[in-house]
Amino acid sequence: MRRKFLKLFSLSIFSLLFLPYKYLYSATKKIINQNLTEEQKKILFHEGTEKPFTSILLHEKRSGFYHCANCEAKLFSSNAKYDSGTGWPSFSEALPGAFKTKIDYSFGMKRTEYHCAKCGAHHGHVFEDGPGENGKRFCNNGLCLIFKPSN
Ligand SMILES: [Zn+2]
Predict the structure, then answer these.
(1) Given CB 3.0 to 4.6 Å as the disulfide criterion, which of 3, 38, 73, 139 pairs with 68?
(2) 41 CA to centre of ligand 1 in angstroms
(3) Would you please indicate which residues are annotated as catalytic (active-site) residues?
(4) What is the 73 CA–ligand 1 centroid distance (Å)?
(5) What is the pTM of this model?
(6) How far is the CA of 117 from the centre of ligand 1 (A)?
(7) How many angstroms separate the CA atoms of 103 and 70, rounded?
């Protein structure tokens, strides 16, 4: 009886410690665009990655802005886009305040994951081998972006 109580007690302490964090973290991510495909949801809300060299945005050369596919926040200017050869749309810088970052330890690697500051949706990872002055390479899933040309 006592052992059972202890077991229950430790289980509830465990949930008390971890559930609010889990809840808070997931609560910051919200589906705003109801027309997202399953593939987009997998990437935006479950940190998925699209297959390289599949995005139509790789060949997008017009000037304009790249927006979040979920909440339409403006994230990148076409001025920052470049061909990194990796197979994912790449940018040397994001618009100020567009993203928040966190360290991602999945797949045995330490990488910096970034997500939309407005809706919390995952977009990609930022690396330190970019071509610009700040040396950043934002490696973004094309499916997470909507391109809006300037004219
Ligand atoms: Zn967003």
Answers:
(1) 73
(2) 12
(3) 139
(4) 6
(5) 0.81
(6) 7
(7) 22
Can you tell me whether residue 63 is helix, strand or coil? coil
22 pLDDT band (50/70/90 cuts)? very low
Q: How far apart are CA 9 and CA 119, in angstroms?
A: 36
Alpha-carbon span 13 to 74, nearest angstrom: 42
Instruction: List C-alpha distances in Å: 6 to 3, 11, 13.
Output: 5, 8, 10
For ligand 1, the distance from its centroid to the CA atom of residue 76, given in whole angstroms, is 12
Q: Hey, what are 30's tokens?
A: 């919200």
pLDDT over threshold 60, residue 52: yes
Structure-token match 């200017």, residue found: 77
The fold of the 38-149 domain, in CATH, is 2.170.150
Q: Is 53 helix (H, G, I), strand (E, B) or coil?
A: coil
Residues making up the chain, counted from first to last: 151
Residue 103 in tokens: 């360290």
